[in-house]
Specification:
674 residues; alpha+beta; Helix Hairpins; D-amino Acid Aminotransferase, Chain A, domain 1; OB fold (Dihydrolipoamide Acetyltransferase, E2P); 5 domains; seven-stranded antiparallel beta sheet; five-stranded mixed beta sheet; 24 helices; 26 strands; 37% helix; 21% strand; elongated; binds 5-amino-3-(furan-2-yl)-1H-1,2,4-triazole-1-carboxamide
């Protein structure tokens, strides 16, 4: 099917528009249209190309993804070798470089082109008649791997050069890298799937580009900065490195925005320190700066030795990774009770800072990395983030290296540690009691949707806990106005108001109270469901996992947390104190529970019965009833055997229904569930 002229025109327009917006977005960082509109253009082009496959060209913007996976990478011979760089590690070495350059050139002073040194993967991009035909890795400098399908997926790599005056053959060299944010996100996803992730952005970039399946590469946030040219047919696009680089941008090729000409050694040093200051602010990782003799004729005169040009040098920053020994693994308890293992390290200087601790995230992470106490580990410090342990140097593992186990009891308060199946985090189950969690627990308790204690703000809670006036939510109810008004920013009036607010909060509902306790996984909705189902605190406290799971929306995770919470004596004690303080709610009937027909009913047994009282009590409780010792208004039935005494009188006085044993049996028969 031949395409009508208007379709051909539309395809051309779409490609031009998409290319334009690609450049605006990726190269110039100035998007002109919303993403949705861009996607619409791309989809329209894709549809047309599907209709007319013969019109698909290698440089169509639709061709970034979609290539089939490769079995192996084929080898590519570089027309001009891809050189690497000599390194300088201090000012002296940089000064030596500058001196050698000047002596060879017999000049007093040299201008250099300076730019940050990206830590990624070097590639060569070959453009024929402006169309990207091949991408290759450096390999050994002479032969690399053909990664054309992969580089085509990189958004900032133009598939076709823009403008007209590019050379008919142009090989561009550059560094493929992964921006820090993309790297973090990629690793976060890997970790959530239980995978190890990449040790650093460099490995991530290399691992992503060297993927046989370009669809995988396409999903990785890769980018590229061009830093040089290889083989060029036709005229060189400039007489200095700086000018050539600027020409590349005219054709749509991205270069470092930090590229700058600097004068002599002094200019180099200034640049080095300025970039060093800003190192952590770049959204990509750099490991130094590169200085290149700017004039191309001078580069020519200087030539190359072995694998590196004489006209360029990389002045490296202090390394971000060092080796040290893992002395111990301690466990810290966070504000939400999460237990975080922390590596105690033999002090080591990483990029100018002494590192003695590093976070290890969680138990699984330690297992994945197979860290053992006594190991020699690779430590990395980048930016403001807490230092990380990247991995172990296995060859240096001592025989006595000991594996780590998460403690079974909280190191802060000794309560049970719970790790919910399917979750990576272990937590202290104490909640209200654990000092590490105390302030957080009290803030939650007082919050508007919980007990709603007006005037009890975060700052005040912090003061109360710090001054040891309050250790649990229950202690709040024993505060007096005199103590309160002695606190910072508390006048007499606000103290009185707070006492009043505390008083008012005692009139609670069961669901608010449950929510306020801060049981893990029990949010407002779950608290309401539990309150509705159980009607009162006591049956909930006594409920087993199986019963809890009968409550709508309560699954094994929530049920396990509820049971663990009520198993902690500290929690029960705090609850007891809260109730003593006068917190109360209206008890409702237990519902939604076919197995408990007598739920919410209270029985009192008296007189001589034909069976032992204990047996009857057990039977009643198995049906959900409560059995108490004395008759009150709340008693549902008095069961009276022979010779019943004063309780019978009480029942009559309070109009509590009285059952004899036959009546009881009838009731039990009607309620029988077995
Ligand atoms: C990097 N990695 O950023 C060179 N590089 O030049 C820069 N690498 C290089 N230049 C010649 N900016 C060989 C390697």
């Amino acid at each position: 099917m031949t395409a009508p002229a208007e379709t051909l025109a539309r395809i051309a327009t779409l490609r031009a528009e998409i290319l334009y917006h690609n450049r605006q977005y990726y190269v110039l960082d100035e998007p002109q249209i919303p993403d949705a509109e861009y996607d619409r253009l791309l989809r329209e082009l894709q549809d047309l190309e599907r209709q007319y496959p013969e019109l698909v060209t290698l440089d169509s913007p639709t061709q970034r993804v979609g290539a089939e996976p490769l079995a192996v990478f084929s080898e590519v011979e570089h027309a001009l070798p891809m050189l690497s760089l000599d390194n300088a590690f201090d000012e002296g070495e940089l000064a030596d470089f500058d001196r050698r350059v000047r002596e060879r050139l017999r000049v007093q002073e040299v201008w250099y082109a300076a730019e940050p040194k990206l830590d990624g993967l070097a590639v060569s991009l070959r453009y024929e008649e402006g169309v990207l035909v091949r991408g290759a890795t450096r390999g050994d400098g002479r032969r690399g791997e053909d990664v054309t399908a992969g580089v085509r997926t990189i958004a900032t790599v133009p598939l076709r050069l823009i403008g007209e005056d590019y050379p008919p053959l142009l090989e561009v060299r550059g560094e493929v890298y992964m921006p820090k944010a993309g790297f973090e996100a990629l690793n976060e996803r890997a970790r959530s799937r239980g995978e190890k992730g990449f040790a650093n952005p460099r490995n991530a970039a290399a691992g992503s580009l060297r993927q046989l399946d370009p669809k995988v590469t396409a999903q990785r946030p890769l980018a590229v900065f061009c830093y040089g040219i290889g083989l060029v047919e036709g005229e060189l696009p400039g007489t200095t490195h700086d000018a050539v680089m600027r020409r590349l941008t005219d054709w749509g090729l991205p270069i470092s925005p930090e590229l700058q000409r600097v004068r002599g050694l002094e200019g180099c040093l200034r640049y080095y320190h300025a970039i060093g200051e800003r190192r952590e602010g770049f959204d990509y990782e750099i490991d130094g700066v590169v200085f290149k003799v700017d004039r191309l004729d001078q580069q020519q005169d200087l030539g190359s030795v072995a694998r590196a040009p004489r006209w360029a040098i990389a002045y490296k920053f202090p390394a971000l990774e060092e080796l040290t020994r893992l002395l111990a693994i301690d466990v810290q308890v966070g504000r939400t009770g999460a237990l975080t293992p922390v590596a105690r390290l033999e002090p080591v200087t990483v990029a100018g800072v002494t590192v003695t601790n590093a976070t290890l995230h969680n138990e699984d992470e330690i297992q994945r990395k197979d860290l053992r106490i006594g190991d020699t580990v690779i430590v990395r410090r980048a930016g403001d983030v807490i230092p990380q342990v990247l991995g172990v140097v296995m060859e240096r593992r001592p025989a006595e290296a000991a594996p780590f186990r998460m403690p079974r009891y909280c190191p802060e308060c000794g309560s049970e540690v719970v790790r919910v199946p399917g979750e990576a985090v272990s937590r202290c189950s104490a909640g209200l009691f654990c000092p590490a969690q105390r302030k957080q627990a009290i803030k939650h308790f007082a919050s508007r949707r919980a007990m709603d204690i007006e005037g009890l703000g975060d700052k005040l809670i912090e003061q109360l806990v710090d001054q040891q006036l309050v250790a649990s939510p229950a202690d709040l109810y024993w505060l007096d106005a005199a103590t309160l008004s002695g606190l910072e920013r508390m006048g007499e009036k606000s103290a009185r108001n707070l006492i009043q607010a505390l008083e008012e909060s005692k009139q609670a509902t069961l669901s608010r109270f449950l929510y306020a306790l801060g049981i893990r996984e029990v949010g407002e909705a779950t608290a309401q469901a539990l309150a509705h189902h159980f009607g009162d605190l006591e049956p909930l406290r006594a409920a087993a996992v199986e019963e809890l799971q009968q409550v709508p929306d309560v699954g094994p995770v929530v049920a396990a947390q509820v049971v663990a919470f009520f198993r902690q004596p500290h929690n029960l004690q705090v609850i007891e104190h809260l109730l003593q303080a006068g917190i109360h709610w209206e008890v409702t009937e237990r519902v939604g529970d076919e197995g408990m027909p007598l739920a919410g009913r209270t029985f009192v047994l008296t007189g001589t019965l034909s069976r032992p009282r204990g047996e009857i009590k057990q039977r009643l409780e198995s049906l959900g009833a409560k059995v108490t010792g004395s008759v009150s208004r709340k008693t549902s039935y008095l069961v009276a055997g022979a010779d019943a005494g004063s309780k019978l009188g009480d029942a009559h006085a309070l109009r509590v229904p009285v059952l004899d044993e036959a009546g009881l049996n009838e009731l039990l028969a009607g309620s029988a569930t077995d």
